[in-house]
Backbone:
């Protein structure tokens, strides 16, 4: 299956019909006017995450997330985090410290020492191509 065209791509289509007029043997060919379509730029992001984790106090915690650019143009993201968000169970007092976001370049689910730490609150800290 072919990848969808990128936003801003021009697609041009011409229809062709062939027929043999009555009483003749020669094939006639006619063409339609050209129809040109500009593919709209669509930005779409999917965020997959595992938000359930139980650890004893002061234990290190790793939460893996996967961000996918599901649109048809390159897209940039500003990353951040917050303690005690709306999705935290009622009555919990979540206070994580020394947090960082690491780009898992080898997709092994582990923040390896050679992988880049992404700047939080910085526009364009992460840029993904379509797909």
Residues:
């Amino acid at each position: 299956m072919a990848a969808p065209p990128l936003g801003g791509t021009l697609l041009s289509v011409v229809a062709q019909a062939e027929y043999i007029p009555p009483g003749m043997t020669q094939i006639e060919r006619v063409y339609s006017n050209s129809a040109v379509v500009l593919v709209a730029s669509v930005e779409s992001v999917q965020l997959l995450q595992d938000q359930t984790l139980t650890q004893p106090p002061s234990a290190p915690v790793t939460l893996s997330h996967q961000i996918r650019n599901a649109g048809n143009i390159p897209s940039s993201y500003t990353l951040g985090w917050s303690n005690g968000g709306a999705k935290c169970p009622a009555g919990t007092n979540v206070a994580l410290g020394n947090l960082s976001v690491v780009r898992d370049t080898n997709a092994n689910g582990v923040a390896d020492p050679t992988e880049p730490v992404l700047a939080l609150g910085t526009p364009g800290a992460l840029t993904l191509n379509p797909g």
